[in-house]
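Troubleshooting log. The previous run stalled partway through. Resubmitting the same two chains, unchanged.
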Amino acid sequence: MIWNFETFGSNPAVINQNGTTVSYADLLFASDRVAQHIPGRCLVFNLCANETGSLLGYVSFLNNRIVPFLVEAGLDSALLASLLDTYRPDFIWCPSRMASGFKSFRPIYHDFAYSLLKTPYNNEYPLYEHLALLLTTSGSTGSPKLVRLSYENIQSNTSSIARYLNLSKTQRPITTLPMSYTYGLSIINAHLYVGAAVILTDKTLMQKAFWQQLKAFEATSFGGVPYTYEMLDKLRFFRMDLPALQTMTQAGGKLSPELHKKFAEYALANGKNFIVMYGQTEATARMAYLPGEKTLEKCGSMGIVIPGGCFSLIEDDGKEIDGPDMAGELVYKGKNVSLGYARCGEDLSLGDERNGVLVTGDIAKRDADGYYYVVGRKKRFLKIFGTRINLDEVERMMKTAFPDVDSACAGKDDLMFVFLTDDTLHDSVRRFLAQKTGLHFSAFRCQAVSQIPKTDAGKTLYKDLARYYEA
Amino acid sequence: MTNIEKYNKVFIESFAITESDLKSLEYQSIEQWDSVGHMSLIAGLEDEFEIMMDTDDIIDFSSYVKGKKILAKYDLEF
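Second attempt completed without errors. Output:
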């Protein structure tokens, strides 16, 4: 068991956007009822939104050894259909307003505006005994590649986060990230672990109602990806009077040093905490954090390893780096390192393929005081609005959708460049990518080129394209 | 270009839509007008009209129609 809801009884676990609350005791009662409608351990698709029903399903499944796959309720329906076909879950738990969209599935229970639907599938694939949860990895490019997490993964990362953030039951975080996203989920996990109340809202920073809720419910913290902090800066956040707000956390990609400094200075001047963190879904969520009191001194750093974890830096030849300020690939060890990936239903029976070691794909260095800095990436992916997008995967999607055009993808965080040999397709390519990834089309820029530069062996020469986006 | 033409142009460019879509447009009524789209819309309007909008106006800017009323505060007539 990850949580002890009994301990917190009548404390509010959830505050809804209309101000109603659900206590820990009520949440426990409701979650037992959901589980009573599921005969045993099996796979459930949990279609997530930041509302009580979604959280109820998640805690019910985890507490009762039912394995949920968390996926955004707003996912493109063709992608969802293909995931359903790949993994064949026994049930779907979704917002009741969506239930009629699944005509062939039978509704058997509903609570908090969520419905449990029975699919025609029954334990199609055996589940590894320690498998607890499935999350998507490379954003929402529709890739069926999922991260397999164990009960121990969640337990260890949750308690570690609660410890280094000093969480207590007086906290009231407000949601700013989807709960199907590892970072958003880790905030929920860690606060339920200490008996705090999570404010669930579907409003965004760009809506008046969000700020009204944040003030009315006296939110004490929120998390954000780099883009969130750009929005806050744009909203002239530093001028707002938010006396209840104590802590802001940041993850999901590297914040620009300028913005890091701005928020660090704001936090120090206003008696608040600004905590930069580092993690991956493959490590359940968190691997490092920069303590609030070091945020200005170590501006630009991703911090130090979380309690219970261990970092090493590895050179190309496999040797471990000892000295300071030398770059190498960051390798993490800890109990929160996921079991591995699943690419198809059969993979759900796989055991632990990583044995607690995660090669992150990030290139980092460590300063003389032991603080880590991300300086590059080994793998070809971008972080777009906090979501990891695999560039090779996008190239494959492009090839399938636009077979007659040669294309290549590269770019920088929050801005992907799609290089095309046909300049009439720019609008349709951007629309296609926005639809398939669920990301805003402004994240994609098309650049016409006479040809895609390639080696003799036919491999794309990405360094020849870098001048377009490295300005 | 008149103010309304400029106003429409920023919407059309920010969201890749056509003029006929404008009148009923609200925040989150189309996929492109999410929080990211909202940032580019506001930045586009600020550039186009050479104004700096207040926080309250940025977060209150919830529809095409309402936006015109909000911009009236910045001495813009439509």
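Takeaways: Residues 151-164 of chain A form the longest helix (14 residues). Chain A touches chain B through 27 residues (CB under 8 Å).
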